[in-house]
Specification:
This protein is an alpha/beta fold. It is built from 23 helices and 18 strands. It has 3 domains: 66 residues, no CATH class; 393 residues, TIM Barrel; 163 residues, Glycoside hydrolase family 3 C-terminal domain (Rossmann fold), CATH 3.40.50.
């Protein structure tokens, strides 16, 4: 017999756990269903006629390798075997390095030379991917990542996450181009349709496509309320009605995760964001930028912003991502939500009982220097160099930012791989070791639940067949048409009787028009009608900030001199004119409505889906998920935190006509 001193406390814990779980598994072992095992250069052990991956290569079946056991049991055993450095690696959510740089990476492949030390030396096993491209190729790229992870001391598989990639709008750091995936309207478009069953179906399709290429985690949905019309991230939300947003969020989580109230083995874990109040951004400026770091609550409507998250919790959402914002007007510590114990421990885990992982948004622990605070000098092109969102804790040392985040309630840090700082914080007594263990167990339990420890590899041929299949693409196209929202239809112009009609086009493919029976003409004088596709106006008010240079800010109204508005005026003066406006933000259409024969709110639709709707093949049935204000004066007077509260809106929330 070994003494406790000889065997070690950790060894004794493992022995006791192994004995307990073996007894628990006993009678069910013979009835267990053998899963498919994915092995490249690892080993397999056989026990009781069943096969298990020998992840630690010791020739024996350890509890964490035993797929008959509960995920929580396996996670507890694995954590007991890990070093502090390995546990710290689990708490990092890095970026899969790509050939050509961090955010590029949309087609050149992963840089495996850079990736290998991140996995094997820093022990990071969760990464966001920003690659897009051929599904089979993407599957092969993700398999290559898993092959590296299999070489690790404990063989922990990699969780691959992604920002949304099924929609139209692409902004680096917030979404990914759709590539070969089925394409659907924006989240606002799904809200315009307003059918939870359709949203759940979308989530189920996205789940199948994600898992087919080796993606396991969705950094979505956004449960934020779009109560501030100027905000640049509205297209990723389900609008500003708390009840509608809650229903959409719940259905989205259920579709992605594959279960009514929990994550299914073949599911994609969802991370609902951004806890909480992000949509009340002051003047609509976004929290990625120092000038947009505040959310404000002049109308006292904070509780409304919390409400949709409860529906995500009811669906068993696996993860929560805190907002970047510093919340004003609420008596809270003036730090970003990722550092707020009041928001993460007291409110999220305490009052709302959340048990899953809390993942920070990106770069909150990075040092924030001059370009972070004040932007790049005039004449210097902004870049992601020096990016930080450490709002309220800029003056702290990096090690103290990690300590503050963990002690506030974070389990994982987004966009970083700084394991040394986290380890140093524990060794300095700034973080209790038990807190690190708890975080690692939560993160690993999800990997076990998804079956990644048995088989993290995917079949590239199957990915090619599943992703963007004809059936999925057709469902996405039908949703694009349905989400279009008819605002005006004077003299019953729509649906169009298209056959042979001569049409002048702007922003619409002539080939698509011909395919729908229209005859495009270049000379407006020859046209019988005109169709103009345009987008909500915006300003670039902060071009010296990286995100400020990409995001839509400021004025929402159409101005004289703008090319599309001039085209609308010219066309409508001569022929009946149909105008569709892409509403990534609630455009002010007061001086457009009075000129057109038909007016449509667009929430993401390809030209074919758009023309399906115009010709009546797939009629539009959207209802506005937010109100459309009548003037910028009304926008500036409304409260950032209150839904649909502008004076005399041009179109109220939930407005929409039908044919």
């Amino acid at each position: 017999m070994f003494s406790v001193q000889e065997f070690g406390v950790r060894g004794l814990q493992r022995l006791l756990l192994s004995t307990a779980v073996a007894v628990a598994a006993g009678s069910s072992a013979l009835a267990a269903s053998q899963p498919e095992l994915g092995v490249r250069d690892g080993k397999v052990v056989a026990v009781d006629g069943l096969r298990f991956r020998d992840l630690d290569r010791d020739g024996r079946l350890s509890p964490f390798e035993d797929w008959r056991l509960a995920p929580e049991q396996r996670a507890a055993d694995l954590v007991s075997r890990m070093t502090l450095e390995e546990k710290a690696g689990e708490m990092m959510h890095g970026t899969l390095p790509a050939v050509g740089g961090m955010v590029p990476g949309r087609g050149q492949g992963y840089d495996l030379t850079k990736l290998k030390p991140l996995i094997l030396d820093r022990h990071v096993t969760t990464f966001i991917t920003r690659l897009s491209g051929d599904p089979a190729w993407l599957a092969e790229q993700n398999n290559a990542v898993q092959a590296i992870a299999e070489q690790g001391r404990l063989g922990v598989p990699v969780t691959v996450s992604t920002d949304p990639r099924h929609h139209f709008q692409f902004v680096a750091g917030a979404s990914v181009s759709s590539g070969g995936f089925s394409q659907w309207p924006e989240a606002t478009g799904l809200a315009a349709i307003g059918d939870p069953a359709l949203v759940r179906r979308f989530g189920d399709i996205a789940r199948q496509e994600y898992r087919a290429v080796g993606i396991h985690q969705a950094l979505s949905p956004m449960a934020d309320l779009a109560t501030e019309p100027r905000w640049s991230r509205i297209s990723g939300t389900f609008g500003e009605d708390p009840d509608l947003v809650g229903k959409m969020v719940k259905a989205y989580v259920q579709g992605f995760q594959g279960g009514e109230t929990s994550l299914a083995p073949g599911g994609v874990s969802a991370v609902v964001k951004h806890w909480v109040g992000y949509g009340a951004s002051a003047k609509g400026f976004d929290g990625h930028n120092s000038y947009g770091r505040y959310a404000v609550f002049p109308a006292g409507q904070f509780d409304l912003h919390v409400k949709p998250f409860d529906e995500a919790f009811a669906a068993g959402v696996v993860g929560v991502m805190p907002t970047y914002a510093v919340l004003k007007d609420l008596g809270l510590e003036q730090v970003g939500a990722g550092f707020s114990k009041q928001l993460l421990t007291d409110l999220l885990r305490g009052k709302h009982g959340f048990k899953g992982i809390v993942l920070s948004d990106w770069a909150i622990t990075n040092d924030c220097g001059d370009t972070c605070l004040n932007g790049f000098p005039t004449g210097v092109k902004p870049s992601f160099a020096g990016l930080s969102t450490a709002w309220g804790v800029e003056s702290l040392a990096k090690v103290d930012r990690y300590a503050k985040g963990v002690n506030a309630g974070l389990d994982q840090f987004g966009g970083v791989e700084d394991t040394a700082e986290l380890v140093a914080a524990v060794k300095a007594g700034k973080i209790a070791p038990a807190r690190i263990d708890a975080a690692a167990r939560r993160i690993l339990a999800i990997k076990f639940q998804q079956g990644l420890f048995e088989n993290p590899y995917v079949d590239p041929k199957a990915a090619q067949a599943v992703v963007g299949s004809k059936a999925f693409a057709a469902e996405g196209r039908a949703a694009q048409s349905a989400a279009l929202t008819l605002l005006e239809n004077r003299n019953g112009l729509l649906p169009l009787k298209a056959a042979g009609r001569k049409v002048w086009l702007k922003g619409l493919s002539p080939d698509a028009a011909r395919a729908h029976g229209l005859v495009p003409v270049e000379d407006l004088a020859q046209a019988e009608l005109a169709i103009v596709r345009t987008a909500a106006p915006f300003q670039t008010l902060h071009p010296n900030f990286m995100f400020g240079s990409m995001q839509h800010e400021g004025d929402l109204s159409f101005k004289d001199g703008a090319a599309d508005y001039e085209a609308i005026k010219a066309a409508s003066a001569k022929v009946p004119t149909i105008v569709a406006v892409y509403l990534d933000r609630p455009a002010i259409l007061t001086n457009v409505r009075d000129k057109v024969s038909a007016l449509i709110g667009d929430f993401g639709a390809g030209d074919d889906a758009f023309l399906d709707a115009l010709t009546g093949a797939a009629p539009p049935r959207g209802k506005l998920p937010f109100e459309l204000p009548s003037s910028m004066t009304a926008v500036e007077a409304q409260a950032e935190d209150a839904p649909h509260d502008s004076k005399d809106p041009l179109y109220p929330i939930h407005f929409g006509l039908t044919y």
